[in-house]
Amino acid sequence: MTSSPDGLVPVTDQLLRAWPLPSPQADKHERGVVLIVGGAARTPGAALLAGLAALRVGAGQLRLAVADTAASEMALAAPEALVVALRTEIPSGDIAADNAVAVLDESAGIDAICLGPGLHGKGASRDLTAAVIDGMDQGVGVVLDAMALRALADCHQRKGQKAPFVVTPNLGEAADLLGTDDQLTPEDAVGAARSIADEYGVVAMVHGAVACAGDERTWLDRTGSAGLATSGSGDVLAGLVTGLLARGASPTQAAVWGTHLHATAGQLCGERIGGIGYLAREIADALPHALATVTRT
Fold first, then answer.
1. Of 96, 134, 273, 283, which sees the most CB atoms within 10 A?
2. pTM of the entire structure?
3. Domains assigned to the chain
4. Is 48 helix (H, G, I), strand (E, B) or coil?
């Protein structure tokens, strides 16, 4: 892979074809088992979007750990998934922090976990995430999204962790991680990704930019479109990266591929539906086509 003098690596189909994903296996367990933790009472669909995205990029098995108030409906909405009910606080509907034991019980045999899509409650989300990470097998790939990012300062340097976490902050969340009150813009994405990666020792994805701690390169995908700025789109992105991790991609490869597949799926939706107005669920549905488009020789 070649980079410019400033370390930027443009992400293209050609670059990814020279950096192929692990070949998909015939057995669903060998293709990877994913656990999505999120989906509080008010936002259960976020976990569903993330989980379906993981399956759409080739993960073999899906587990969803979501609010008890939505678990039955989630099992019907995603018959492909094993669904675990997590106790919620009343009246907020937030998933309680003491669910960590239940999540860890369901983590046996998984290859990758995504924490955050649809979590609510700052303190509970932070405490739940930190407790799950503390008890998680160190070989499991980890993606932190949305409210789970609040635990990053507590758990990013876990002793013995085999690979860096992947974090998926939007621009506002990136500013929080960097401790700045300044409003970040898309032009700040490269610097923000680089700073977060270096400060926390992670792979950071920020608005098309991907940086990895200890690597001077920063990958930048400029193919994203305005239509991707829609409710639930970030949940799809977090889920598809988790699916690629479960398939055996490294954290950096999963993040770079995930960024480009997300953008390509948006382009395909734009061509079929219109430049804006397509839904996050349609981005997830377009991922198999996006994967075929990128890998086509």
1. 283
2. 0.95
3. 8-295 (3.40.1190.20)
4. helix
